[in-house]
Amino acid sequence: MALIVQKFGGTSVGTLERIRAVASHVLDTQAQGHQVAVVVSAMAGETNRLVGLAHELHPIPDSREYDLLIASGEQISVGLVTLAIHAEAERRGLIKRGDIRAVGLLGHQIGIRTDSVFSKARIHAIDSTTLEGHLKLGRIPVIAGFQGVDPDNNITTLGRGGSDTSAVAIAIALQADDCEIYTDVDGIYTTDPRICPRAKKIEKISFEEMMELASGGAKVLQIRSVELAAKYRMPLHVRSSFSPVEGTRVVHQDLLGKALEQVVVAGVAADASQVKFTLKRLKNDSELLAKIFGELSNAAIVVDVIVQDIATDGTMALSFTVGQTDHLKTRDILNKLRDTVLPNVVVEDRAPLAKVSIVGVGMQHHPGVASKMFGLLSAEKIGIELITTSEIKISCLIENARMKDAVNALHRGFGLDA
Amino acid sequence: MALIVQKFGGTSVGTLERIRAVASHVLDTQAQGHQVAVVVSAMAGETNRLVGLAHELHPIPDSREYDLLIASGEQISVGLVTLAIHAEAERRGLIKRGDIRAVGLLGHQIGIRTDSVFSKARIHAIDSTTLEGHLKLGRIPVIAGFQGVDPDNNITTLGRGGSDTSAVAIAIALQADDCEIYTDVDGIYTTDPRICPRAKKIEKISFEEMMELASGGAKVLQIRSVELAAKYRMPLHVRSSFSPVEGTRVVHQDLLGKALEQVVVAGVAADASQVKFTLKRLKNDSELLAKIFGELSNAAIVVDVIVQDIATDGTMALSFTVGQTDHLKTRDILNKLRDTVLPNVVVEDRAPLAKVSIVGVGMQHHPGVASKMFGLLSAEKIGIELITTSEIKISCLIENARMKDAVNALHRGFGLDA
After folding, report:
1. Full-model pTM
2. What pLDDT sits at residue B260?
3. Is B98 on the interface with A (CB under 8 A)?
4. Structural domains for chain A
């Protein structure tokens, strides 16, 4: 008997029909002799609907109230999935009407404690007592993903895709054997199949590669959830809620087969929602840099690529990228800084740009990967705005309109089409 | 400076435009020098949407999960109204962007403690500390109506219209000066204007009359909210969120003018959502009655009219009515009893029926009101299925299709058309 955490994303609970299928699947797993805890996202479209309403009322909604508002989406899924499990368990004769087989639980009810960084909160602790109590009674806890409470009992949310992180954190707290992430695709692909039709499903991938793919824009898993899983070596299984086939297992590098080390590039990631900010005529003073990024960090804005250069007149030019959701907030902060501590500095922003990345653990042992990447893009006449690299990833910022061409060229060029 | 609780119903927060109007109104009240606490319902249609989804998944949804599900409707309103107040306060220059003028609060966050009767929970206590703290800082608490938490921190709801009860309970906990109930009509009418076009707005009405009108089917205020207001003599002001005119004040009987004592019938109430159950061939045994109503009470089913009669063969016939929402649950319980402790008993149900009632404190000093009522119905050839009376109310159960005729005849017959 294993203890399995099953997380169902927005499309997996997007309709009542899908919710019934989830209920069926969860009870099937239990029937195989396993204990199951379920984590759910909001129904597909629900979070966007609520976000849209919030922004119609206020251009930059207060993040505490914003979190309180959008956390309701997961609450709805929790109620519906629990009711569907009851109905299916009755239909199968597992329980009589009125008996309890599943219990819906919100963040504050199982002590999912987070910090107070609204909309991007991080989980500090989960009290597993309540969950373990229900599991011991043969009940299926159905838990709201994406949400927690801060030390003052304010409702917090973990950021887009945060339900993955909830699932991993709950799996760790429960010392689960497996954490299954059910989504609308049947695994992790060498690149986004909607962009490149020759993309192929990956059978096994290391935590590190998965993190780089996710930070490069692969939307299947939230990067923080992979970081967390890597830290505690919690194996993930990304699979489709629409099909019974095996998905992609995300595991520790030691568990990858030898053959995989020969692969230089494991995947190509693309992220279209990038904004590039440029500050010109900055004084060449690292204290200013600390000030700028300190203010952005205080506002919980995640800065991605950073590039800095010295102009011929001795002033500094600084460029960096943020996600599109932080566009206005970032501009506000930079304009405020310009009006106070950064006189004469020019603030420019450019959007939408795309980041394309190649990822692979084999890359560190193969020279010339970067130059090959630039060559492939150049052959397509795609200009590169910014470059950033890590040990197992190279990313280029390019024009949004050329993203598809870039991904296909890189996928083919690095032998992933084969 | 007064402390005012303002409760906004589903239509008052039914669209973003209406929510902006609510924000404006709340800030206007504050600008007049008052402290304001706001209680909100779910956006019109939202609760019905969620109830519909629940029933599609399960014919008799588990009430704990049902409450967890539908409580999300008020949560959405809380977030949106708070954001709208922020936006309007910024527009008026009352605060700078990022400052706090309103704070959204859910039941569990301000200690709205209830019993564990899901879907019909009763409030035991409210911890006013958090609310008072915000009010002292000049902030407007925006509170989710309809919801609370039981001693095990399960989410409970107070039943349809429960937000009125939330508002009154919060007004009492805060020792507010006034509790304003904003709705889609501009006050309490002598009867439902949609049924009888000659209905007139009542300026002032006693708590007792209001309770009888509400229990007779007037949907403007939930009866429990009036009971609670009466117990603590919390004055209510029922008014329209669409118009600035004075509404109806619900006050202690001592505060009604002398002239009103001359009015025999203050209003006519009608309630179309009634189900009549009849049990035939019951043994004439009061223990059985205790058993039957005990089971219904355990399931938190509110029984309205009860009539009992002895047949010529010495067996007992028992009829009673419940609300339409309890139809299936009641039938289930009665069938289960028939199969165990009530052999040979016939269980019948009839729906939809309507209850029409006349209400007035003057009634107790005027004989012949009942016979006049029966005469008026008889003249319209409307059959009476059941009769029940209180000191200030007489109710008749009739065919649903004749409800409109009955209300109009009674409104005219008791001089309310004038």
Report:
1. 0.80
2. 47
3. yes
4. 3-184 (3.40.1160.10), 268-413 (3.30.2130.10)
